[in-house]
Structures are given as C-alpha cells and as structure tokens.
Amino acid sequence: MTAIDIPSNLSTAALQHKYQQLKDQAEQHGQILTQKLASSQSGQNLLHMGSSLSTLPTDLHFLLTQLHPLLQGVEQSEGSLSSKLNNICERALVIKKHQRRVIHAQECADSFEDLLAAEKIVQLDLQMRKYGSVLAAEARASGDDEERSANDDDTSALDDALDHALSLERAAHIAQSLIIEVQQSQDDITDIADDKASNNINASLPPDTERAQFFLQLAPRIRHLEADVSQSLAGELERLLLRWTQQNLGASEKEILLLRFGHAVRGLSLIGRATDAESVFARTSIMPLIREHLSMGRLDQGGARGECAGLTSLLDDLSNTLAQRFGDFLQMDYLLTAGIDLLTRGVWVPLATTLMTDSAVRMAIFSPGIAKILQTNYLALDSFLNSLAVNLLREAKPEIVKLAQQRIYEHPKTAEFSKKWNLPIYYQLRFGECSKRLNIAIETTTKEGWVAQVYSGESETTNFELSLFQELNDILLFLWRRDVLLPPLTNRFLRGALQLVGRMTHFIQEGMDGKIRFGQEPVREGEANEAPDAIEEIGSHTYCWADSEENVAAVTWELSVLEGFLRDEYSSIICKSLDASPELSELVKDILSEAADQILPLLDTAWNAVIVRILTEKCCTPLALVKGVAATYRMTNRPPPTQPSHFCDQILRPVKEFSEANRTPSTVGFRWKQQIVVQVADRYATAVEELLTTVARTEVALQRNRRASRLTTAGGMSDGEKVKLQLYLDCQAFLNQVHSVGINPETIIGLVKLQDLTKEGEALANPPEQG
C-alpha cells in the first residue's frame, strides 16, 4: 500500500488550496462511481439505499440505548402470549377429547341398541320356529287365490312372514356392521403408538382405545349373534324352499316366497355365508330331485342292463323339472351381485358329486366297457353340461347366461368330473376296431388277390374301385362319425387315421418290393413229430402281384385317389365334424397334406421303376429277332425288302396297350413312357450295331470267294445291302411307333444313334436318280 504524505507547517492559504483540491478529486471520483453503479443492477440497488442511509442517526450507541427497553417489552409480551397459547391448545385438546368421547359414546350406544334389536329378532325367530308360528301361518295361507283374498287373516299371516324375512335381513346388516367394528377395533389396538401431541391448536388427537375396547368386550356376543343370524336365515331359506315344492300355491304366495328368498340369500351373503345359501338350496331342493330321477332302473330304461339307454331322457327330464320348479330362483339378477351361484354350486356340483360317488351309477356311466355306450354317455352328459345355463336360465339376459356357463366350466368339480372319463381307453377300443377291420381286409386280399371282396361298410358311394381301398375309405370316415368321435380325442383320432393310411402304404410298398406274396401259403397237416412223407402241401401257389403291370397300375391309381381324398374331401369332412375354426381347419389341412405327400414317392416308384422295368422287358423281347434279319437274306437270293420286319409292330405294343387300358395319375405324368422308350431304343441300337458288325465281317469273308461274290451280286444288291435296307425300314417303323406313344424321337439319344447306324440303308431305299 502506498503511504500518504501529510504536509505539516502549512499556511492557511496552502491548507485551503489543498482542501479544495481534495474536494474536487472526491467529486470527480464520486461521479465516476455513480456512473459505474448506474450501469449495473446491484449498483442501482446501492444507489437506492443511499437515501435511507442518510436518515440514520449519527450515533449508533444512542440508537441502541433507545431500543433496548422496547426489545425487553417485546420479549415479555411474547413469553406471556406463548404461555396463553399453550394453555389454549391444552384446553382445545381436552375439548376435542370430550367431543370424541361423546361421538364414540353415541356410536357405541347406537351399535349396542342395534345389537339388542338384532338379538331380539333372532330370539323371535327362535320362538317362531319352536312353536311353529311361521309354518302355521303358511299352512293357513295355502289354497287358491280367491279363498286367500277373502280371508284377511291369511293375507296378514303372509305379510307377517315377509316382514319377518325382512327383519332377518336387517339383523344380517347389523351383524355385518358389528363384525366390521370388531375387526377395526382389533386393528386399532394393534396400531396404537405413543405419539406426543404438538403445541398446535389444529393438532390431531392422540389415539383413544375406549371405543375399541367397548367393541372388543362385545366381540363374543357379536360373534354369537352372527352365528344365530346365519342359522335363522338358513332356516328361513329352507322353510320357504320346502313350501315352494308343495302344490296349490297361489300367485300372490309365490311372489311373497320369492321376496322372502331374496331377503334370505342377501342376508347370508352380507355376513359372508353365501355357501350356506347354496348348500341349503342343494340339500333342500336339488338332492331330493336328483334322488327321485337318478336310479339304475331309470338309467337302463328302454334298453338292456348296463347300456344306459335312458341316460339322455333322464337328463332331459331332470333339466326340464329343474327349470319348471326352480327357474324363478335361479335367474334372479341380484344373485350374481350377491356372490351366490346357485346354478353351479347349488345344481351342478350336487349332480356331479352324485354321479361320481354312487358306485353303481359311476361304473355304468364312466366305465361301461363298451366303446359305443361310453361315447353315448359322454355325449349325453357333455350336451347336458354345455346347455345347463341355457336350459335353466331361460328368461335371463344372454350375457348373464354366458357368464353362468363360464362359471360352471371354471369350477374345480367340472375338471374332476372330466377326469372320470377314461377317454384313452375309449380311443384304444375304437382304434382297435379300425385296425382289426383293416388287418382282416389285408389278410383276405393277400390270400385272394386284389379282386377279393373285403368291403364291410354300408355306403356304396365312393371314388375307389378296389375293395381294399373302399374298406380303408370307410374306416377313415368311421373315425369322424357323430356316434364315434369325441372332441377331446381329436388329436388322437387324427393320428390314428394317419397310422391307418401308413399301414396301407407300407403293405403296398412291401408288396412292390416282393416281401409280401399273394396266394395261399402252404398248409401243413399232421403233427410236428410225423415223418416228412406224412406232410401234405395244399394250395402252395404264391405270386408277387407287383410282377403284373396291370396290378401295379390299378393299385397306384387307387393310391392317387387316396392322395387326393386326403388333401381335399377328407380334410373337409374332419373340419365339418369338429365345427372347426379357420385356424384349426388350416392346421388339419396341413397335417393331411403332409400325409398325402408321403404317398407321392410310392407312386413315383411304382410307375417310373416297377412299371418301367416290366414294360421294358416286354418291349425288348421282340428285339431278339433283330439277329434273324441277316439270316433271312444271307445266301437266299431273296429280293430286296420293301416292308419292315413283322416284329417291329410288336416292340412298343405293350406300352400302347397298357397306356390305353390303364389310367395314369396326374402326379406321375408321362416320364415313365420316356424311360421305356429310352431303354428300348438303347437296346435296339445295340442289337443293330452288333448285327451290322456281323454283316460287315461276313461281307469281307464273301469277297474272298469270287464265286460267292458273283452269286450275291446277281440280283443287283448284295446280301449285306439287303440287310441294311431291312434295318432301315425297321428303324423307320420303330420311329413311327415312338411317335404313336406320344414321345418325340429327337429327344431319345438311342434313336439318334439308331438312325446313324441305318443311314446306308436310307441311301439304298432312296437311290439317286440317273441323269
């Protein structure tokens, strides 16, 4: 820091000059500072403070001295007011406590009064049940409407019964509210904490246990009331249901009984005893009706014992009776909101339990041992279960019916009931029937050939011609008949159908491979320990059916029909039987298409391997006569040929006759003809080539013998030339045959070679004109 020099011993004029100089500098610096302060927000705030600072007293000590008494007074006032505030807050809390006690006392008094009223209602109900007042009133009220309208006492009795049911529902309301109070009191006692109240007039009151302790002291009495109310409501419900089942009830009494029923079930629902209402309904109304209808004699009505011929009519009668007697109760809308399901737990569960627990009925329905009876029983009960809500809730809204049916399906008893059906055994029985039919048909066909009549069905309308395939077709359709199919076994039935198709294709494949031979196998008579000369063979002729192209063509045509049947008609039949959705229909079609694809390789093998082999051998048989062409003209002095050899027409005749007599599957096409012509042409060309080689050697040998040479040239054409001309004519005839069977000769390499070999014959057949 720079030190400031203070002048000393200056004159007055010098001091004044110095003072004026410092004053000017101060003003100059003040202006600069003001400009800088004015250019910023913080500086502007300091400028505004300047005016207030100018008002401050010049002596701060004087200011503190004057303010000290004032501050002491303020502190004393604050302490006094704080003490008064605390006193007011304490008194306010006391007032709130007393107000709360008054409110709680009033609530407790009201609750206790309700408790006494409910106990009085229950006591009155007990006396009425003891002395039979309600039953007597109902008995007096019986009769037709005209008599009751004339009797005011009877009408009053019905009204009293209705009022009593209403009072029981009110008692249930009271019991419910008291139970809630007891539960809340238990929670309050558990959750109480020692919290200190703050010094705030609006502070919350500390927890109070007086009200909770009051209800906890009454808890045993309230629990007893709940049990008594439940018992009274159950008794009321049972009485009115028994009364409902009696005859000669008038319209007004039925209406009152329905109202009483509503009060009773709502009361039971309020106190959490909905299951009691369902149990009373099942025990009082449904079980007597089930015992009345369900018996072994009724099950076997109209048929032999154990056939359950009367099951369908029994279920129909039971459904109609339930709808007529108790339909008014079952389709009350408020039952759903009250959480009471009379249809499921009051009707279906008792019926299902009876069917599953009665040993005789259970064995007759679920385990009859006969597939047809089991399927009939299953469909009857399945139809009854699926339409239970529709039949019993006839006047209810569709959405209510749908919801009720869904609850039936979701109940655990329904799942338990479904497990009682031994469906895998049923499938084994049905599949065993189908397998037995197919095995018998295959065995008979193996012994008697494809002409064997093995069809055991009834319908004659089919696209198949061979009896074995007709039997397979009928078996496949049998699986999806209404009296055979069970929807839960759809996947197994579909798999079984594919297994049967596989069994048939395997049988045909083994036949084409020669592993299965047709005809009667040797039958040996006599004992095993007899001498060999005592053994006699009967009917020992066997054959392989695949050695005949006619058999192969007929069988493969049936296979092609089966392949198309699986892809189109059979999938439609299955989907129609199942009422399948679009997704399921597409899945079934894909599965059957894969099964049909397994037949295509068998068709290809049959035509392009087996039939080609058989027909090729037949077509090549006449080619053995090609060697005889040379012998025909050697040393015979015959004239030159003008016609093809007689065997030429025989070469492709088997193909033509076979093609005209048999149908070719569209999936096979005409490649089999191409293969036959290719193989025959190759063999033909080979035979011609060998013959021409032999002829050439012969001509060389003959040229050494002049005399022989003169003899062979006497006719103007040598023997070798005659042979070549004959081969050319035969080749042209063969080309015409190839055209006639629908094959282009230019695509056959063997024919091209054959034409090259017979070019010399072509020159002899068409000699150049002499100029």
Automatic annotation (TrEMBL):
GO biological process, alphabetically ordered: Golgi organization; intra-Golgi vesicle-mediated transport; protein transport
Domain COG complex component COG2 C-terminal: 419-730
GO cellular component terms, semicolon-separated: Golgi transport complex; membrane
UniProt xrefs under PANTHER family: CONSERVED OLIGOMERIC GOLGI COMPLEX COMPONENT 2 (PTHR12961), CONSERVED OLIGOMERIC GOLGI COMPLEX SUBUNIT 2 (PTHR12961:SF0)
Name of this chain's protein: COG complex component COG2 C-terminal domain-containing protein
